[in-house]
Amino acid sequence: MTIRFGIIGLGNRGYKYALRTIMTSKDCEIVMVCDALGKNFDLFPGIANTIDYHDVLDNHQVDAVFIATPDDTHAEIILAAVAQEKHILCEKPLEVSREKIAELQEVLKDYSKVFEVGYVLRYARSFQKVKELLVSGAIGEVKMINAIDHIQYGGYAYFHDWHRTRAKSTSLLLQKATHSLDIANWYIDSVPQDVVAFGRLSTMGKPGALKKFGHEVSPDLHCRICTISDTCEESIQNLAKEKRIQWSDQWPDSCVFNSEIDVDDQNSVMVQYENGVQLSYQLCLFGAYYKRAFQIFGSMGELTFDDVTNEIKVYHRLKDEVMIYQNNHEEIQMEPGDEEQLADFILAIQTGKEPISNLRSSTLASLLALDAQDSIDQHKMIKQSK
Ligand SMILES: NC(=O)c1ccc[n+]([C@@H]2O[C@H](COP(=O)([O-])OP(=O)(O)OC[C@H]3O[C@@H](n4cnc5c(N)ncnc54)[C@H](O)[C@@H]3O)[C@@H](O)[C@H]2O)c1
Protein backbone atom coordinates (compact mmCIF):
# COMPACT_ATOMS: atom_id res chain seq x y z
CA MET A 1 0.00 0.00 0.00
CA THR A 2 1.44 3.37 -1.00
CA ILE A 3 1.42 5.94 1.80
CA ARG A 4 0.13 9.25 0.50
CA PHE A 5 1.88 12.18 2.14
CA GLY A 6 1.02 15.80 2.71
CA ILE A 7 4.02 18.00 3.51
CA ILE A 8 3.51 20.98 5.84
CA GLY A 9 6.36 23.49 5.86
CA LEU A 10 8.71 23.72 2.87
CA GLY A 11 11.60 25.63 4.45
CA ASN A 12 15.14 24.37 4.87
CA ARG A 13 14.23 20.99 6.35
CA GLY A 14 10.81 20.41 4.82
CA TYR A 15 11.56 20.67 1.11
CA LYS A 16 14.79 18.66 1.38
CA TYR A 17 13.26 15.80 3.35
CA ALA A 18 10.22 15.76 1.08
CA LEU A 19 12.23 15.76 -2.15
CA ARG A 20 15.17 13.59 -1.20
CA THR A 21 13.66 11.09 1.22
CA ILE A 22 9.86 10.84 0.96
CA MET A 23 9.67 11.34 -2.79
CA THR A 24 12.41 8.81 -3.48
CA SER A 25 10.79 6.09 -1.32
CA LYS A 26 9.03 3.37 -3.29
CA ASP A 27 6.41 3.16 -0.52
CA CYS A 28 5.41 6.83 -0.54
CA GLU A 29 3.81 9.41 -2.75
CA ILE A 30 3.44 13.14 -2.08
CA VAL A 31 -0.08 14.30 -2.93
CA MET A 32 -0.10 17.81 -1.47
CA VAL A 33 2.43 20.36 -0.18
CA CYS A 34 1.86 23.38 2.02
CA ASP A 35 3.88 26.38 3.09
CA ALA A 36 2.35 29.42 4.78
CA LEU A 37 4.62 31.71 2.73
CA GLY A 38 4.25 29.70 -0.47
CA LYS A 39 7.95 28.79 -0.42
CA ASN A 40 9.39 26.20 -2.80
CA PHE A 41 6.12 25.20 -4.47
CA ASP A 42 8.04 25.25 -7.76
CA LEU A 43 10.11 22.27 -6.56
CA PHE A 44 6.96 20.14 -6.58
CA PRO A 45 5.56 20.54 -10.08
CA GLY A 46 2.26 18.78 -10.70
CA ILE A 47 1.56 18.39 -6.97
CA ALA A 48 -1.33 20.29 -5.38
CA ASN A 49 -0.20 23.12 -3.10
CA THR A 50 -1.72 25.44 -0.53
CA ILE A 51 -0.71 28.08 2.00
CA ASP A 52 -3.23 26.77 4.57
CA TYR A 53 -2.30 23.49 6.32
CA HIS A 54 -5.99 22.76 7.00
CA ASP A 55 -6.36 22.05 3.25
CA VAL A 56 -3.80 19.24 3.63
CA LEU A 57 -5.58 17.81 6.66
CA ASP A 58 -9.03 18.05 5.00
CA ASN A 59 -7.70 16.21 1.95
CA HIS A 60 -8.99 12.61 2.15
CA GLN A 61 -6.23 11.41 -0.16
CA VAL A 62 -3.64 12.30 2.48
CA ASP A 63 -2.81 9.36 4.78
CA ALA A 64 0.20 10.86 6.54
CA VAL A 65 1.69 14.28 7.16
CA PHE A 66 5.27 15.41 7.55
CA ILE A 67 5.36 18.58 9.67
CA ALA A 68 8.46 20.76 9.23
CA THR A 69 7.28 24.14 10.45
CA PRO A 70 8.92 26.24 13.21
CA ASP A 71 8.95 24.59 16.63
CA ASP A 72 6.27 26.79 18.20
CA THR A 73 3.71 25.70 15.59
CA HIS A 74 4.08 21.93 16.07
CA ALA A 75 1.37 21.40 18.72
CA GLU A 76 -1.29 23.36 16.84
CA ILE A 77 -0.68 21.41 13.62
CA ILE A 78 -0.33 18.02 15.38
CA LEU A 79 -3.63 18.53 17.21
CA ALA A 80 -5.39 19.45 13.98
CA ALA A 81 -3.86 16.38 12.26
CA VAL A 82 -5.04 14.14 15.11
CA ALA A 83 -8.58 15.45 14.61
CA GLN A 84 -8.35 14.26 10.98
CA GLU A 85 -6.76 10.93 12.01
CA LYS A 86 -3.57 11.29 9.96
CA HIS A 87 -0.36 9.40 10.61
CA ILE A 88 2.08 12.05 11.82
CA LEU A 89 5.82 12.45 11.34
CA CYS A 90 6.69 15.74 13.04
CA GLU A 91 10.07 17.41 13.21
CA LYS A 92 11.85 17.74 16.54
CA PRO A 93 11.46 19.12 19.15
CA LEU A 94 7.99 18.10 20.24
CA GLU A 95 7.08 21.69 21.17
CA VAL A 96 8.52 24.69 22.97
CA SER A 97 6.51 24.89 26.20
CA ARG A 98 5.59 22.52 29.02
CA GLU A 99 1.90 23.35 28.61
CA LYS A 100 1.83 22.35 24.96
CA ILE A 101 3.90 19.22 25.61
CA ALA A 102 1.46 18.20 28.38
CA GLU A 103 -1.49 18.76 26.03
CA LEU A 104 0.17 16.62 23.35
CA GLN A 105 0.92 13.85 25.85
CA GLU A 106 -2.74 13.77 26.87
CA VAL A 107 -4.16 13.80 23.34
CA LEU A 108 -1.64 11.38 21.82
CA LYS A 109 -1.42 8.77 24.58
CA ASP A 110 -4.06 6.52 23.01
CA TYR A 111 -3.76 7.72 19.41
CA SER A 112 -4.60 4.91 17.03
CA LYS A 113 -2.46 6.25 14.16
CA VAL A 114 1.34 6.49 14.06
CA PHE A 115 3.03 9.40 15.79
CA GLU A 116 6.78 9.76 15.27
CA VAL A 117 9.09 12.68 16.03
CA GLY A 118 12.10 13.54 13.87
CA TYR A 119 14.89 12.77 16.32
CA VAL A 120 16.74 11.52 13.30
CA LEU A 121 20.01 10.58 15.00
CA ARG A 122 18.34 7.59 16.61
CA TYR A 123 18.13 6.22 13.08
CA ALA A 124 21.65 7.11 11.90
CA ARG A 125 23.86 4.05 11.43
CA SER A 126 26.79 5.09 13.63
CA PHE A 127 24.51 6.13 16.49
CA GLN A 128 22.64 2.84 16.18
CA LYS A 129 25.93 0.91 16.23
CA VAL A 130 26.91 2.65 19.48
CA LYS A 131 23.55 1.69 20.98
CA GLU A 132 24.01 -1.90 19.83
CA LEU A 133 27.49 -2.03 21.42
CA LEU A 134 26.21 -0.61 24.71
CA VAL A 135 23.30 -3.07 24.83
CA SER A 136 25.70 -5.95 24.09
CA GLY A 137 27.73 -4.97 27.17
CA ALA A 138 30.83 -3.93 25.19
CA ILE A 139 31.89 -1.57 28.01
CA GLY A 140 29.93 -3.20 30.84
CA GLU A 141 27.36 -1.02 32.58
CA VAL A 142 27.21 2.59 31.38
CA LYS A 143 28.26 4.92 34.21
CA MET A 144 29.07 8.36 32.76
CA ILE A 145 28.84 10.21 29.45
CA ASN A 146 30.64 13.32 28.19
CA ALA A 147 29.11 14.79 25.07
CA ILE A 148 29.76 17.94 23.06
CA ASP A 149 28.33 19.72 20.05
CA HIS A 150 30.77 22.07 18.31
CA ILE A 151 28.83 24.01 15.72
CA GLN A 152 30.81 26.16 13.30
CA TYR A 153 27.64 27.24 11.45
CA GLY A 154 25.90 28.69 14.54
CA GLY A 155 25.87 32.18 13.11
CA TYR A 156 24.64 30.87 9.82
CA ALA A 157 21.90 28.51 10.99
CA TYR A 158 20.65 29.94 14.27
CA PHE A 159 21.38 33.65 14.63
CA HIS A 160 20.16 35.03 11.28
CA ASP A 161 16.54 33.82 11.62
CA TRP A 162 13.71 32.78 13.97
CA HIS A 163 15.87 30.40 16.00
CA ARG A 164 17.48 33.38 17.75
CA THR A 165 14.64 34.46 20.03
CA ARG A 166 13.21 32.63 22.99
CA ALA A 167 9.74 33.62 21.82
CA LYS A 168 10.15 31.35 18.78
CA SER A 169 12.55 28.61 19.82
CA THR A 170 12.73 28.85 23.66
CA SER A 171 16.46 28.00 23.59
CA LEU A 172 19.07 26.42 21.39
CA LEU A 173 19.24 23.68 23.99
CA LEU A 174 15.75 22.76 22.85
CA GLN A 175 16.33 23.56 19.20
CA LYS A 176 19.79 22.07 18.63
CA ALA A 177 21.15 20.29 21.70
CA THR A 178 17.93 18.29 21.95
CA HIS A 179 19.33 15.81 19.40
CA SER A 180 22.35 14.96 21.55
CA LEU A 181 20.33 15.06 24.78
CA ASP A 182 17.89 12.60 23.24
CA ILE A 183 20.77 10.33 22.22
CA ALA A 184 22.15 10.51 25.77
CA ASN A 185 18.71 9.55 27.15
CA TRP A 186 18.65 6.62 24.75
CA TYR A 187 22.15 5.38 25.57
CA ILE A 188 21.68 5.83 29.31
CA ASP A 189 18.29 4.12 29.08
CA SER A 190 16.84 5.85 32.10
CA VAL A 191 14.99 8.99 33.08
CA PRO A 192 16.77 12.26 33.97
CA GLN A 193 16.39 13.04 37.66
CA ASP A 194 18.44 16.14 38.53
CA VAL A 195 19.50 18.79 36.03
CA VAL A 196 21.91 21.68 36.50
CA ALA A 197 22.99 23.94 33.66
CA PHE A 198 24.81 27.14 32.77
CA GLY A 199 24.38 29.34 29.74
CA ARG A 200 25.61 32.61 28.27
CA LEU A 201 25.24 34.72 25.18
CA SER A 202 28.88 35.67 24.75
CA THR A 203 29.71 36.03 21.07
CA MET A 204 26.54 36.79 19.10
CA GLY A 205 23.81 39.35 19.91
CA LYS A 206 24.48 42.42 22.02
CA PRO A 207 27.74 41.17 23.62
CA GLY A 208 29.13 40.54 20.13
CA ALA A 209 27.95 43.98 18.92
CA LEU A 210 29.55 45.80 21.84
CA LYS A 211 32.85 44.05 21.14
CA LYS A 212 32.69 44.57 17.38
CA PHE A 213 31.10 48.01 17.04
CA GLY A 214 31.22 49.47 20.54
CA HIS A 215 27.44 49.97 20.45
CA GLU A 216 24.19 48.03 19.99
CA VAL A 217 22.90 47.18 16.50
CA SER A 218 19.46 48.19 15.28
CA PRO A 219 17.00 45.26 14.99
CA ASP A 220 16.39 46.34 11.37
CA LEU A 221 19.94 45.63 10.27
CA HIS A 222 20.22 42.87 7.63
CA CYS A 223 23.32 41.59 5.82
CA ARG A 224 21.86 42.54 2.44
CA ILE A 225 21.72 46.23 3.36
CA CYS A 226 24.73 46.33 5.68
CA THR A 227 27.69 48.44 4.54
CA ILE A 228 30.26 46.06 6.05
CA SER A 229 28.76 42.77 4.91
CA ASP A 230 31.76 42.20 2.60
CA THR A 231 34.15 42.10 5.52
CA CYS A 232 31.91 40.99 8.41
CA GLU A 233 32.89 37.47 9.44
CA GLU A 234 29.27 36.62 10.25
CA SER A 235 27.51 38.02 7.15
CA ILE A 236 25.63 35.38 5.18
CA GLN A 237 27.77 36.13 2.13
CA ASN A 238 31.04 35.70 4.01
CA LEU A 239 29.98 32.61 5.88
CA ALA A 240 29.20 31.05 2.55
CA LYS A 241 32.64 32.00 1.23
CA GLU A 242 34.82 31.33 4.26
CA LYS A 243 33.16 28.22 5.57
CA ARG A 244 32.15 26.79 2.23
CA ILE A 245 28.52 26.69 3.33
CA GLN A 246 26.18 26.49 0.43
CA TRP A 247 24.42 29.83 0.75
CA SER A 248 21.07 30.30 -0.84
CA ASP A 249 19.78 33.67 -2.00
CA GLN A 250 16.68 33.25 0.13
CA TRP A 251 18.60 32.64 3.34
CA PRO A 252 17.38 34.91 6.20
CA ASP A 253 19.95 37.62 6.90
CA SER A 254 19.07 39.48 10.11
CA CYS A 255 22.32 40.68 11.70
CA VAL A 256 23.66 38.11 14.20
CA PHE A 257 24.64 41.03 16.47
CA ASN A 258 21.06 42.38 16.88
CA SER A 259 20.01 43.06 20.45
CA GLU A 260 16.77 41.10 20.07
CA ILE A 261 18.81 37.87 20.29
CA ASP A 262 18.07 36.38 23.67
CA VAL A 263 19.10 32.72 23.34
CA ASP A 264 22.49 31.54 24.63
CA ASP A 265 25.38 30.71 22.34
CA GLN A 266 27.17 28.51 24.90
CA ASN A 267 25.79 25.98 27.38
CA SER A 268 26.98 23.40 29.87
CA VAL A 269 24.49 20.86 31.23
CA MET A 270 24.92 18.18 33.89
CA VAL A 271 22.32 15.51 34.49
CA GLN A 272 21.99 12.73 37.03
CA TYR A 273 19.69 9.92 35.85
CA GLU A 274 17.45 7.71 37.96
CA ASN A 275 19.79 4.75 37.35
CA GLY A 276 22.72 6.77 38.71
CA VAL A 277 24.39 7.50 35.35
CA GLN A 278 25.81 11.01 34.99
CA LEU A 279 25.85 13.12 31.83
CA SER A 280 28.01 16.15 31.16
CA TYR A 281 27.13 17.99 27.93
CA GLN A 282 28.39 21.14 26.21
CA LEU A 283 27.00 23.15 23.32
CA CYS A 284 29.27 25.67 21.59
CA LEU A 285 27.61 27.65 18.78
CA PHE A 286 30.72 29.57 17.71
CA GLY A 287 32.93 26.52 17.21
CA ALA A 288 35.81 26.63 14.74
CA TYR A 289 34.69 23.37 13.19
CA TYR A 290 31.78 20.93 13.29
CA LYS A 291 31.79 17.88 15.54
CA ARG A 292 29.33 15.95 17.72
CA ALA A 293 31.28 13.67 20.05
CA PHE A 294 30.47 11.18 22.79
CA GLN A 295 32.79 9.63 25.37
CA ILE A 296 31.03 6.90 27.29
CA PHE A 297 32.52 5.37 30.44
CA GLY A 298 31.38 1.90 31.49
CA SER A 299 32.24 -0.49 34.29
CA MET A 300 34.43 -2.52 31.90
CA GLY A 301 35.72 0.03 29.43
CA GLU A 302 35.25 3.22 27.47
CA LEU A 303 33.64 3.99 24.13
CA THR A 304 34.43 7.07 22.06
CA PHE A 305 32.61 8.21 18.97
CA ASP A 306 32.18 11.29 16.81
CA ASP A 307 30.01 11.90 13.79
CA VAL A 308 32.75 13.40 11.61
CA THR A 309 35.17 10.48 11.51
CA ASN A 310 32.27 8.07 12.17
CA GLU A 311 34.79 5.95 14.02
CA ILE A 312 33.73 4.14 17.18
CA LYS A 313 36.51 2.98 19.52
CA VAL A 314 35.92 0.58 22.38
CA TYR A 315 38.67 0.38 25.00
CA HIS A 316 38.74 -2.51 27.45
CA ARG A 317 39.46 -1.50 31.06
CA LEU A 318 41.50 -4.52 32.02
CA LYS A 319 43.11 -5.52 28.72
CA ASP A 320 45.37 -3.57 26.39
CA GLU A 321 42.79 -3.86 23.67
CA VAL A 322 40.96 -1.38 21.41
CA MET A 323 38.19 -2.41 19.02
CA ILE A 324 37.51 -0.04 16.14
CA TYR A 325 34.28 0.14 14.15
CA GLN A 326 34.21 2.35 11.09
CA ASN A 327 31.00 3.40 9.37
CA ASN A 328 31.82 4.17 5.74
CA HIS A 329 28.23 4.36 4.55
CA GLU A 330 27.67 7.52 2.51
CA GLU A 331 24.23 9.07 2.39
CA ILE A 332 23.51 10.39 -1.09
CA GLN A 333 21.94 13.83 -0.73
CA MET A 334 20.32 12.82 2.56
CA GLU A 335 21.42 13.38 6.15
CA PRO A 336 22.44 10.35 8.25
CA GLY A 337 19.30 8.62 9.48
CA ASP A 338 16.83 10.34 7.14
CA GLU A 339 16.06 7.23 5.11
CA GLU A 340 15.96 4.88 8.12
CA GLN A 341 13.68 7.29 10.00
CA LEU A 342 11.17 7.20 7.17
CA ALA A 343 11.49 3.40 6.96
CA ASP A 344 10.61 3.16 10.68
CA PHE A 345 7.57 5.40 10.13
CA ILE A 346 6.41 3.24 7.22
CA LEU A 347 6.96 0.05 9.22
CA ALA A 348 5.00 1.51 12.13
CA ILE A 349 2.07 2.22 9.77
CA GLN A 350 2.29 -1.23 8.22
CA THR A 351 2.70 -3.26 11.41
CA GLY A 352 1.47 -1.10 14.31
CA LYS A 353 4.89 -1.22 15.99
CA GLU A 354 5.94 1.77 18.10
CA PRO A 355 8.42 4.09 16.36
CA ILE A 356 11.94 4.28 17.84
CA SER A 357 11.52 8.05 18.27
CA ASN A 358 8.11 8.19 19.88
CA LEU A 359 5.90 10.31 22.12
CA ARG A 360 7.61 9.19 25.33
CA SER A 361 11.21 9.62 24.13
CA SER A 362 10.55 12.97 22.45
CA THR A 363 8.73 14.23 25.56
CA LEU A 364 11.71 13.31 27.76
CA ALA A 365 14.19 14.94 25.37
CA SER A 366 12.15 18.15 25.12
CA LEU A 367 11.57 18.35 28.88
CA LEU A 368 15.27 17.81 29.59
CA ALA A 369 16.14 20.84 27.45
CA LEU A 370 13.39 22.90 29.14
CA ASP A 371 14.60 21.86 32.60
CA ALA A 372 18.17 22.78 31.68
CA GLN A 373 16.97 26.24 30.61
CA ASP A 374 15.02 26.60 33.87
CA SER A 375 18.17 25.70 35.79
CA ILE A 376 20.06 28.46 33.93
CA ASP A 377 17.31 31.02 34.46
CA GLN A 378 16.69 30.16 38.11
CA HIS A 379 20.33 29.48 39.07
CA LYS A 380 19.43 26.21 40.73
CA MET A 381 19.26 22.46 40.27
CA ILE A 382 15.98 21.27 38.77
CA LYS A 383 14.20 17.99 39.45
CA GLN A 384 13.31 16.71 35.99
CA SER A 385 9.65 16.80 35.06
CA LYS A 386 8.39 13.60 33.45
N1 LIG B 1 16.03 16.76 12.24
C1 LIG B 1 16.81 17.65 11.69
O1 LIG B 1 17.91 17.33 11.38
C2 LIG B 1 16.29 19.06 11.44
C3 LIG B 1 17.06 19.95 10.70
C4 LIG B 1 16.56 21.23 10.49
C5 LIG B 1 15.33 21.60 11.00
N2 LIG B 1 14.61 20.71 11.72
C6 LIG B 1 13.29 21.07 12.27
O2 LIG B 1 12.42 21.32 11.17
C7 LIG B 1 11.50 22.36 11.49
C8 LIG B 1 11.61 23.44 10.44
O3 LIG B 1 12.92 24.01 10.49
P1 LIG B 1 13.53 24.75 9.22
O4 LIG B 1 14.97 24.94 9.51
O5 LIG B 1 13.11 24.07 7.97
O6 LIG B 1 12.78 26.16 9.33
P2 LIG B 1 12.46 27.16 8.13
O7 LIG B 1 12.19 28.46 8.78
O8 LIG B 1 13.54 27.09 7.10
O9 LIG B 1 11.14 26.56 7.47
C9 LIG B 1 9.89 26.57 8.10
C10 LIG B 1 8.84 26.71 7.01
O10 LIG B 1 7.56 26.54 7.61
C11 LIG B 1 6.66 27.47 7.00
N3 LIG B 1 5.56 27.69 7.95
C12 LIG B 1 5.59 28.40 9.10
N4 LIG B 1 4.38 28.31 9.72
C13 LIG B 1 3.60 27.52 8.93
C14 LIG B 1 2.26 27.07 9.04
N5 LIG B 1 1.50 27.38 10.07
N6 LIG B 1 1.78 26.30 8.03
C15 LIG B 1 2.54 25.97 6.96
N7 LIG B 1 3.82 26.38 6.82
C16 LIG B 1 4.35 27.14 7.80
C17 LIG B 1 7.51 28.70 6.73
O11 LIG B 1 6.94 29.51 5.71
C18 LIG B 1 8.84 28.08 6.34
O12 LIG B 1 8.97 27.92 4.94
C19 LIG B 1 11.87 22.83 12.89
O13 LIG B 1 11.02 22.22 13.83
C20 LIG B 1 13.29 22.34 13.09
O14 LIG B 1 13.58 22.05 14.44
C21 LIG B 1 15.06 19.44 11.92
From TrEMBL:
Sequence ranges assigned to domain Gfo/Idh/MocA-like oxidoreductase N-terminal in this UniProt record: 3-119
Source domain of life: Bacteria
Pfam families (UniProt xref): GFO_IDH_MocA (PF01408), GFO_IDH_MocA_C3 (PF22725)
GFO/IDH/MocA-like oxidoreductase domain ranges (all copies): 127-303
Protein's name according to its UniProt entry: Gfo/Idh/MocA family oxidoreductase
